[in-house]
């Protein structure tokens, strides 16, 4: 396949870099266009499978799969520019929050093959969680090929588009909540005498290990927590204080705020 990226910023660039090695193994070619020409040239120099293009139209014409990595407010300008090059054999992939499949169909046509994804920033270290939605025109074989791009940068799951707001709350925005938790642990450790660099390692590795325990066990998350809490011990003391202060309710309220904002943004 020829996989084109329009926009190679933080997220688009992370997906491109994450897929580059897999592309080389599969014989895929990666094309890229970015308004900052130096970005495209740098990626072209870094990866043998990457070739820069000089415009959105040129990239769309030359690609089988076009991944739109631009901001949501740019879609109304971008989609008319590439519409003439988007034949029914091509697949358009959008990662923009608030931009629905129906909105894209309104510009490109209801018969076009459109996939919507919602990745998150850990794509930069190959640990993204990517939700993938498709319209009725994307057959299973085509979907499987595109799905493989996002499996190469972490984990991917197909969901109905109606769940995309929930996805934003649970994975799209949640790295920020997790960074807050890690930062609080670091600050507390520093306050108790640990060097910041050491505190960062202790806090972040503990979160990484806990996440792996959740993913690699059939034990419920609640039971994993209970298993750490020895009666009368230090952990149960901390957990009780967190419950008392509304820790879990605060997370749920933040989640809900992200979901509601996503609904307001959607066009």
Automatic annotation (TrEMBL):
Pathway: Amino-acid biosynthesis; L-proline biosynthesis; L-proline from L-glutamate 5-semialdehyde: step 1/1. GO terms for molecular function: pyrroline-5-carboxylate reductase activity. Residues 161-264 form the Pyrroline-5-carboxylate reductase dimerisation domain. It is an enzyme of class 1 (oxidoreductase). Keywords: Amino-acid biosynthesis, Cytoplasm, NADP, Oxidoreductase, Proline biosynthesis. It catalyses: L-proline + NAD(+) = (S)-1-pyrroline-5-carboxylate + NADH + 2 H(+); L-proline + NADP(+) = (S)-1-pyrroline-5-carboxylate + NADPH + 2 H(+). InterPro entries: 6-PGluconate_DH-like_C_sf, NAD(P)-bd_dom_sf, P5C_Rdtase_cat_N, P5CR_dimer, Pyrroline-COOH_reductase. Its EC number is 1.5.1.2. It comes from the Bacteria. Residues 2-98 form the Pyrroline-5-carboxylate reductase catalytic N-terminal domain. It is found in: Cytoplasm. Catalyzes the reduction of 1-pyrroline-5-carboxylate (PCA) to L-proline. Belongs to the pyrroline-5-carboxylate reductase family. NCBIfam families: proC. This is Pyrroline-5-carboxylate reductase. It comes from Anaerovorax odorimutans.
């Amino acid at each position: 396949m020829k996989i084109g990226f329009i926009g190679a910023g933080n997220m688009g660039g992370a997906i491109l870099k994450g897929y580059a090695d897999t592309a080389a193994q599969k014989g895929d070619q990666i094309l890229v266009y970015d308004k900052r020409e130096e970005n495209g040239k740098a990626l072209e120099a870094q990866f043998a499978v990457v070739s820069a293009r000089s415009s959105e139209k040129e990239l769309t014409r030359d690609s089988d799969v076009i991944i739109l990595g631009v901001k949501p407010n740019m879609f109304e300008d971008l989609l008319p520019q590439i519409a003439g090059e988007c034949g029914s054999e091509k697949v358009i992939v959008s990662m923009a929050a608030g931009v629905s499949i129906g909105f894209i169909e309104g510009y490109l046509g209801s018969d076009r093959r459109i996939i919507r994804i919602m990745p998150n920033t850990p794509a930069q270290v190959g640990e993204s969680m990517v939700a993938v939605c498709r319209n009725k025109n994307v057959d299973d074989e085509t979907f499987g090929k595109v799905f493989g791009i996002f499996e190469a940068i972490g984990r991917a799951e197909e969901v109905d588009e109606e769940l995309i707001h929930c996805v934003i709350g649970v994975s799209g925005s949640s790295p920020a909540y997790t960074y807050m938790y890690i930062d609080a642990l670091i600050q507390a450790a520093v306050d108790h005498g640990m060097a910041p660099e050491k505190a960062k390692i202790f806090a972040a590795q503990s979160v990484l290990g806990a996440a792996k325990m959740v993913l690699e066990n059939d034990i419920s998350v609640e039971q994993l927590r209970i298993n750490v809490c020895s009666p009368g011990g230090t952990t149960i003391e901390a957990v009780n204080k967190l419950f008392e202060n509304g820790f879990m309710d605060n997370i749920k309220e933040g989640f809900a705020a992200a979901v509601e904002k996503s609904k307001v943004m959607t066009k």
